[in-house]
Amino acid sequence: MLSRSPREPGAPGRDHHQLVIPGANYWWCAASRGEYVAAALVVIGGAGALARRLVERIPRSALQLVVGTLLSAFGSFWAVEGLGIAWPGADLAIIALAAWYVLAAAWYIRRLRRQTRHASQLAPQHAR
């Protein structure tokens, strides 16, 4: 559908006979967004390739603990936000949740290590 430009005749910088094609600007924006997405993929992929050696040095269990803690913190925050309840401190509550989950995980790990150590002391020693 073609329509006349909404500008009045004689407006500076525009010819009053200019046609406006609805949707033409959309394709230009979509093309430029695609270029930004491609550039972002290259940058993120390059950063990942450079950080790979550093990440490989992190023990797998520690990495799993960090990722699990962050997923739990963000998931809890968004679940409560989804219920329509506002957090005190707004987005800073995510940091408090992450700290809470880290403390809970540290307590549980310590408890499990103590149990394991106690069980290994009670196990019968086999003569060699």
Write the layout of secondary structure elements.
Layout lengths: L2 E2 L14 E2 L3 H34 L2 H23 L10 H30 L6
Tell me briefly what this model is.
This protein is mainly alpha-helical and 128 residues long. The chain has helices at 24-57, 60-82, 93-122; strands at residues 3-4, 19-20.
**Radius of gyration over all CA atoms, rounded:** 29 Å
Structural class: mainly alpha
C-alpha termini separation: 92 Å
Spatially, the strands of the biggest sheet line up as 1-2
Multimeric state: single chain
Q: Report the count of strand segments.
A: 2
The shape, in one word, is flat
- Total individual domains: 2
Helix content: 55-70%
* Main sheet characteristics: 2 strands, antiparallel
DSSP summary: helix tally: 3
Run of helices and strands: EEHHH
Strand content: under 5%
pLDDT averaged over residues: 79
Low-confidence stretches: none
